[in-house]
Write a structure and sequence with these properties.
This protein has eleven helices and eleven strands. The protein has about 300 residues and is an alpha/beta fold. α3 crosses α4, α5 packs parallel to α6 and α8 crosses α9.
Length: about 300
């Protein structure tokens, strides 16, 4: 990694809670060749840890494959890591998901979804191009990710003693996973605490969920003059209805206010719309994101 890119990674490490755990992760992967990292949401594990490991002597000349269970999270993680390095996606960091890939001969960190990793392990059981496989958000526990981890463990035992494995999660029984990996170290990173205020809203008997959500968003915007709002709804239909009630994301902001941009966020949206929901508003407006449960643990939305 060049000096300029290394300095960018060091600056990011200083600003993120997981930065204090990086030295312990390095030691664990160097000595035990596998580890479990438990860190709260927003600690920076997804976007910082792979970058911080790029210059490890045991990795060269191979790269890192990181599993993200969801396509949206895979794209977002790759974009954020590339931004930290000051590069475009597809250079040092790329991604490969169903029907879409942005990688190049320069790519050393490849973020993939479950089906992609599973097929790669079937075609190349030793993962010859990879020095480290990272299983992110492992608490979601899908059959595909469990199978891929089992195949990696088997590859380490039979084909590749030098293959490193790192399992990361915010809400995981780290000790149980560590035992499954053969008694490897568990590294725990602390997060940041923020004040939380809980308010219970009365629900009108005839009120439907989108109307209730839109009303709650308006109250949240009025209660504070700054900051963005993240609201969860169960599906795309409810999100579209609530977004229409709030005025959409066009100029003017509609019912949510002239200085507010309203975005939807769910898996079936076009990539450009997903990206707009995750980034700060280009015009400096406050942002309302109406999301499915994908934003609960798989994504960190800037401003929220």
């Amino acid at each position: 990694m060049s000096d300029a890119r290394a300095e960018r990674v060091r600056a990011a490490a200083a600003a993120l809670p997981v930065g204090e755990a990086l030295a312990r992760v390095r030691v664990a992967l160097r000595e035990a060749r596998a580890a479990v990292l438990v860190a709260p949401p927003g600690a920076g594990k997804t976007t910082l840890v792979p970058l911080a490991l790029l210059d490890e002597p045991w990795l060269a000349p191979r790269g890192i494959v990181m599993l993200e269970p969801r396509r949206l999270a895979a794209r977002a993680a790759a974009a954020r890591m590339a931004a930290i390095l000051g590069e475009a996606v597809g250079e040092t960091v790329g991604y490969r998901i169903r029907f879409e890939a942005r990688v190049s001969a320069r790519t050393r960190i490849e973020v993939v979804t479950e089906g992609i990793l599973g097929r790669r392990l079937q075609d190349d059981p030793g993962l010859e191009g990879a020095g480290l496989v990272v299983f992110d958000e492992f608490h979601e526990r899908h059959l595909d990710s469990d199978l891929s981890l089992a195949l990696c463990v088997d590859a380490r035992r039979v084909l590749r003693e030098d293959l490193r494995v790192l399992v990361m999660s915010a809400t995981l029984d780290g000790a149980a996973v560590a035992r499954a990996l053969g008694g490897v170290p568990v590294v725990t990173a602390e997060g940041r605490s923020h004040p939380v205020e809980v308010r219970w809203e009365e629900r009108e008997p005839e009120g439907r969920l989108p109307e209730i959500a839109a009303s709650g968003v308006r109250r949240a915007l009025r209660a504070s003059a700054e900051g963005d709002v993240l609201a969860f709804l169960p599906g795309a239909g409810e999100i579209r209805r609530a977004r229409a009630l709030l005025g959409g994301a066009g100029p003017g902001g509609g019912a949510a206010g002239r200085d507010v941009a309203v975005h939807a966020l769910f898996g079936e949206l076009p990539a450009e719309e997903q990206d707009r929901a995750l980034r700060p508003d280009a015009g400096g407006r406050r942002k309302v994101v109406l999301a499915t449960s994908i934003a609960e643990t798989s994504l960190t939305i800037e401003g929220v």
